[in-house]
Amino acid sequence: MAGSQDVISALVAEGEAVEALVADLADTDWARPTPAPGWTIAHQIAHLAATFKLAGTAAGDPETFKALAASIGSDFDGAVQQALKPYLAASTPQILLERWNAERRAAEQALAAVPADRPVPWLVRPLTAPILAAAGMMELFGHGQDIADTLGVRREPTDRLRYLVEFAVRTWDFGYQARKLATPETEFRYEITAPSGARWEFGPADAEQCISGPAVDFCLLVTRRRHRDDLALTAHGKDADAWLDIAQAYRGPAGPGRTPGQFS
User: Fold this and answer.
1) Which of 104, 118, 130, 217 makes an SS bond possible with 4, Cβ 3.0 to 4.6 Å?
2) Residue where a domain stops, chosen among 155, 179, 210
3) What are the backbone dihedrals phi and psi of residue 116, each rounded to the nearest 5 degrees, phi first?
4) pLDDT of the chain along its 264 residues, tens only?
5) Are residues 123 and 167 in the same domain?
6) With helix as H, strand as E and coil as C, how does the chain read?
7) 18 shares its domain with 59
8) Which domain holds residue 241?
């Protein structure tokens, strides 16, 4: 993965792009339901606030984070819902937005201050600050897409997506783990076309299992914001084809995902 400050800069820019989606919304629009069942736009921002709070604590106060992570236990969904409550309790959408911005900036600063090779405690296993920042990119992309879909906004992808692509390649086995499936004993090849037209390649060049296609489609797949049938991704090999059905770049339950043609 590229230098730590590069990914932090990308994280800042992606956060600003999501902020721009909601900054001028009327208060009533914050209550609009998003494609995530049961979640409004306010829920999406509250989740981002809670996630960045966790990341900032992990990077800036590891011991407090470890105690917090231990208290979460095995009830992942319950922990997610509980973490939203303090932010959803904000008296106005503007206050919620301000609280997310404060959590986001604190996390960005804390991550930037950690040496790139120093592990940071996290929910599953320790990560370096650049990888945790890339996980933040994944959160911003996925929840930002839910907001954009709700508002009917088309986002312009940038080559910042490389950090999310790299993160998804690194966590390629999460989809199996979430479903308690055996992970294939094989290596995948990924040939991804960047928004700029550059070619990003990962994995052995002679791998029998290969995924190829546009970066934005790949990111929509691994965040489960589009069904594979609606994406221009190609799989070569039986395992690669099956992976397109279960790919996810986050731990925890897969969720229902999206249905074919849902956003046509």
Assistant:
1) 130
2) 155
3) -60, -25
4) 544 459 999 999 999 999 999 999 999 999 999 999 999 999 999 999 999 999 999 999 999 998 888 777 666 667 777 888 999 999 999 999 999 999 999 999 999 999 999 999 998 889 999 999 999 999 999 999 999 999 999 999 999 999 999 999 999 999 999 999 999 999 999 999 999 999 999 999 999 999 999 999 999 999 999 999 999 999 999 999 999 999 999 988 888 899 999 997
5) no
6) CCCHHHHHHHHHHHHHHHHHHHCCCCHHHHHCECCCCCCEHHHHHHHHHHHHHHHHHHHHCHHHHHHHHHHHCCCHHHHHHHHHHHHHCCCCHHHHHHHHHHHHHHHHHHHHHCCCCCEECCCCCCEEHHHHHHHHHHHHHHHHHHHHHHHCCCCCCCCCHHHHHHHHHHCCCHHHHHCCCCCCCCCEEEEEECCCCCEEEECCCCCCEEEEEEHHHHHHHHCCCCCHHHCCCEEECHHHHHHHHHCCCCCCCCCCCCCCCCCC
7) yes
8) 162-246
- Do 178 and 139 reside in the same domain of the chain? no
In terms of Cβ atoms closer than 10 Å to its own Cβ (0-12, 13-18, 19+), residue 25 is: middle
